[in-house]
Amino acid sequence: MLTRIDHVMICTADLEQGIDAYRRLGFDVHHGGVHPGRGTHNAIAFHRDDYLELLSVRDRDEYARAAPTGGLLDFLARGGGLRYIAVQSDDLDADVAAMRGRGVDVGDPEDGERRTVGGQHLRWRAAALGAGNPLPIFFLQHLTPLAERRQQVPRAGEHPNGVLGVERVYVAVTDVAAAADTYARVLGIPAPKVQRGAVIKADMAVFDLGPTGLTVAQPAEPGPAAEALARRGPGPFQVLHRTRSMDAAARWMADHGLPPPARGVRNTGEEAMLVGPERACGAYIGFVGPKERRIA
Q1: Cα gap 147→71, rounded to integer Å
Q2: Mean pLDDT throughout 159-174?
Q3: Does residue 294 surpass a pLDDT of 70?
Q4: I need a labelling partner for 82 at 20 to 30 A (CA). Which of 43, 104, 136, 284 fits?
């Protein structure tokens, strides 16, 4: 069963610059380690149950041997940003079989691993979609328990901006109805009703995956979705996080030299803040949550 969004992958040409940018946004980011034989390394901001990954090329020659098509290098040359959304499975073999039963082009699960800077050996299995379904998602089943994975950072889920976890991830598309049908077949979930996203200014369909949402969004008027589509074409562009305190997040950013984030009101009635791609390595980073109560 597909259970939730496991993590988002934000690719940056310079990992140290990416770490600095996200720390200024209030994320407790730490070096993650290397991917043996793949030429890449990463940094992790671990929330309560999911995480944000910053990924960069560590060794171009090793990466070229592992990925002859050079997709990541091409992506970075175009400015980097949010590239993939990892969807967690509790039984990857069964989920892959079910996808194939729906006519989805998906590869066999493959083993993956990473050695953290602290010496932990993290293991997982992952399956990628094939050319017949070129969506920016892949599927992952952890072999390392969550409690152990949290130990790769000193304080999992303790970010200065109060972030608790990923709430939604947004993918810009040119036809929301067609995209919803495609994602429904891949995910094995009925296509949801299209609704208007008040902050991203788009018509959107939200697929609920446990406590998280995977959203396809077609611009309806000028705004973040339209800007992302014009700048990069179809693909993932925003991560929305739930925070303990919107004011704490805004104060942290102000104290670290960032201009005030754009604010808007969601169609749920909640206020949201949005940091643009120029401050977040090519991705839009959103925050939603309670404001502090002031006693008169």
Answers
A1: 33
A2: 97
A3: no
A4: 104
